[in-house]
Amino acid sequence: MKIKAIRYPTTLDKIDDITDDNIDIFVTLDDGNQYTLVVSTLKNIGTLMNEKGYSEPGWAQQLIIVKELNEELIKIAVEAYAAEADGLFLKVSFLATMFEMEELDQALERLDRQYNSEEE
Questions:
Q1: What pTM did the predictor assign?
Q2: pLDDT of amino acid 94
Q3: Which of 42, 57, 49 minimizes the C-alpha distance to 97?
Q4: Bridge partners of residue 37, in order along the sequence
Q5: Regions of the chain where pLDDT drops below 50
Q6: CA 49 to CA 60: how far, in whole Å?
Q7: d(CA 108, CA 97)
Q8: What residue segments make up the domains of the chain, in order of their start?
Q9: Residues 57, 96: contact at Cβ < 8 Å?
Q10: 24, 37, 88, 116 - which has most CB atoms within 10 Å?
Q11: Beta strands in the chain (DSSP E)
Q12: How far, in Å, CA of 115 to CA of 101, rounded?
């Protein structure tokens, strides 16, 4: 997949420390699909981890990690993720937050039945 556009709901000039923060981005791929992702610095992950001592559920599944928050690095990182396995990471990361628990449980049950029938 190729990147058609990257949009920033918060402009980068509003960030106090581009080496210790995270931002949402909207990525549009050449197939027309749009994904919301989070770009974070490694230092920011450390800051968040130091607050509780562990990664809080939900905040890490969509992270793309860069050295600092600047358009060039973000573009390079997002392009690499989009190119890998036809955009699989971008799609899975986005979808991870879109399902209700019941839907996930049903999908896991279907997979379990499928694998069990293949073993017989």
A1: 0.77
A2: 79
A3: 57
A4: 25
A5: none
A6: 11
A7: 16
A8: 3-119
A9: no
A10: 37
A11: 3-7, 22-29, 34-41, 63-66
A12: 21
